[in-house]
Amino acid sequence: MRMSRTIALLTCTAALAATTAACSGATKPQAAPGGAGYQVTPTSPPAKGTLSSFTWSLYAEPYTLDYALAYDYPPNTVLANVCEQLFRVTPDMRIEPGLAVAYKQPDPRTLVYTLRSGVKFHDGTTMTADDVVASLKRQMDPATGSPWGSAFKNVDAIEKTGPLEVTLRLGKADVLLHELMAASPGTIESAAYLAKAGKDYGTSKGGVNCTGPFALDSWDQGSGITLKKHAAYWDPKLSPKSESVKFTFIEDPAARTSALLSGTADGGYMLPTSSIQQLRTSGKGTVLFGPNTAAADLAVLDLHGALGNVKVRQALSMALDRKNIIKAAAGGVGVPAKAPAARGAWALAPEKTAELYDTLPEPVYDVAAAKKLVQEAGATGRTITLATSTLAPEISVVANAVQAAGRQIGLDVKLKSVAPEAYSNIFVDPNAREGLDLVITNGYDNTPDPLEFYQYFRTGDFGNYGNWSNAEYDVAFDRANSEPDAAKRAELTAELQKIVVRELPSIPVYEAPYNVFLGKRITGAPTGIAQLYYPWAATIGAAQK
Fold first, then answer.
1. pLDDT of residue 293
2. How much is the pTM?
3. CATH for 343
4. In sequence order, which residues have a C-beta less than 8 Å from that of residue 353 and are 6 or more positions away?
5. Which of 44, 190, 311, 443 could pair covalently with 373 via S-S, beta carbons 3.0-4.6 A apart?
């Protein structure tokens, strides 16, 4: 599922601006809420040996390996090991230098990056400032069609200002732009390779040529992707412990579970929630839970129909039995979401989390009051179309729960079944949203800042799937995005959170930890959502010497 957004990192941006040292997060092992019988830890036990290869299960085939178009879990899970960004997020939720070794901001509208020397692309050529300029500018080119293009909306110029220096000049201050250099917007590809591959770039025919610890070896569409170790990788700490990695695509949850239990697949992230307990007790491997910044939400896609009335959106939210949804959709592992951005997204200034997120009221469950709101809106009997899919079991579970909730309050919620690959397209292709009112999303952050999540509700943003527009919100967002102090910016972001919780352009449902299954022969994998940008496969090795 996508769902919008990516990963919140526990970091200290102000310190990063002044130094190349990594910024520590506060990700320690922690018990689950309510004593649910699991712990959240950032990594699995370290590898004890090397491997010739291992096989990893994806719930769907990546629709692209083009970094500028990667906007979902499957492509980013592969690309995390192949392509790299100017900065890097680590499993314990720190930000550290990546392809950039230093950063400075001489004024609020200028960002200067000093690049790492001697970095080799997979074809053996050396990375230069020209490659960085070409990679970043490509995100801005309308012809690329990048979902990340709006991240560069305030960029006036991207210039090579030295052999290993690139400067971004902005029309106005933009805190999030720098933070996104640790995510897809900051990915670097060879300029020469981009020119050579042309429109085939990122496809099974055109491939990619990045700097990560693994290179793309082959992509047999419909069957698998194979990566091979990059012998000239610049970071010895992340030199791969396996010579190769093979990705398989198994959309059917039962078949995917069988592959993990049989050893046909050695591991996988984002397990079928209906199989978590079976996998935990199988004796065939280990299920681990990691830090997550995602929340399951209902994104409103059409504000011209019944959901255009805020009372209807509020009513649908009030009619959701979130605790039972968690039991059925997340195996009981999770908590009701208080806002569209998860608690884990409030990580930049963790001392503010209790004040700005924990004090939010628990979501109300009141069917009678919800039915009254529908009546007041004159929406009784109106139809709402919700996308559902076999892509993941929880999609169907939540869809059925929403349909039942609608029935109780006088709304006719119709379910439209969408093929797994088409479901992902809903989040990248506006045409795929036609005829739909709602879609179940898994909204997550790319940055260490909850503001990054809330940018997707700005007027005209790519991630604003329903084209919701609120002038008060847009003004408040610009105010927050120009505030360099993390704690003050968190307080300003809380104002955005307040508006969104009130207006509900996206309806929060539940939060759950990230998960991963590791078969008995492997270990070393990060367990959390950091895997979307950290070269997680490089740390996987043999569980035994």
1. 85
2. 0.83
3. 3.10.105.10
4. 343, 346, 347
5. 311
